[in-house]
Amino acid sequence: MTDRVLAIDGGNSKTAVLLVDADGKVLAQVRGPGAPPQTVGMKRGLDVFEGLAREAAAQAGLSPDEPIATHTSAYLAGADLPREEEDLTRAITERGWSTTTFVGNDTFALLRAGTAAAGGVAVVCGAGINAVGVARDGRTHRFPALGAISGDWGGGGQLGNDALWHAVRAEDGRGRPTLLLDALLAHYGEKSIAKVVEKIHFEEIGLDPHALCPLVFEVAEQGDSVALEQIDRLIEEIVLLATVSMRKLELMNEPVDVVLGGGVLTHTGDTVVGPVRRQIVEAAPLAQVRLVDVPPVVGAALLGLDHIGASPGAELRLRSAYNDNVPAAVLDVAASG
Questions:
Q1: Both 135 and 284 in a single domain?
Q2: What percent of the chain stands above pLDDT 90?
Q3: Are residues 144 and 242 in the same domain?
Q4: How far apart are CA 123 and CA 280, in angstroms?
Q5: 151, 336 in Cβ contact below 8 A?
Q6: Angstrom distance (rounded) from CA 290 to CA 295
Q7: What is the DSSP-derived secondary structure letter of residue 117?
Q8: Average confidence (pLDDT) over 308-327
Q9: Residue 217: which domain range?
Q10: Between residues 325 and 122, which one has the greater pLDDT?
């Protein structure tokens, strides 16, 4: 069988699958709904992944009775602890998609998507928030990322939930006035936020905090102090995640790539990324802070290509399929290889 890598980027809100050959050529790419096994259940989550993997195999012209790939490189939201990674590795291996399998947290794929270096720091802020650091000698630092019980704050879901919280308190007098109240009333088409809460309670309408997140940024643009404080807190948290990882790995005074990704960071212009970049560089002057410019599934594929020992040219070819702005480090390595 020709060496192939099946790459899976399994986020909370979407799943991306990429099938590439050992030369970095894209054979197929498909997208589907988010299906974190820790949230939807192991069988249901893996059924979604398998459906997408089989779709990619068919798109690549593979026979249904042949293995999809040599190696499966799966980087998943919710794979936060070693026990979860082991369980997922075992379950995916049993599906028989490939000869070998590696499962890791999706922040590692983000980091590899954003840098060609041996290490760095990545912070993802999408539906949730997380970070990982990798030193050049292979040492890693990561957070449990289990939500409030592990000290986490941030992400689109958090901002959306907090927007509702502030709107309720603005209406009933426990909180400060905020334009978030008007924004949420318009969003739900109601005249009272108390009525919205009642309908959510009785499951007459759903609470989708991720849909409320953009309202925070819209209201902040109008100068609303409550919304601005939410964004300031998010900026502080992203900077903390990055700098704590850097300190733990003794990278504060070293040249280090800091990769930012996730929908909240990539879809809000310079509102968050600009202040985050300035504050990180103030703390670590040699840091290079960049917003990821290829999909994180590319990082999962690159980690898979690393695993099978693909040539440096494979990385160049894969990146070029998505972005003409290939990092200089990749060009240098490809040329020397």
A1: yes
A2: 87
A3: yes
A4: 12
A5: no
A6: 14
A7: S
A8: 85
A9: 156-230
A10: 122
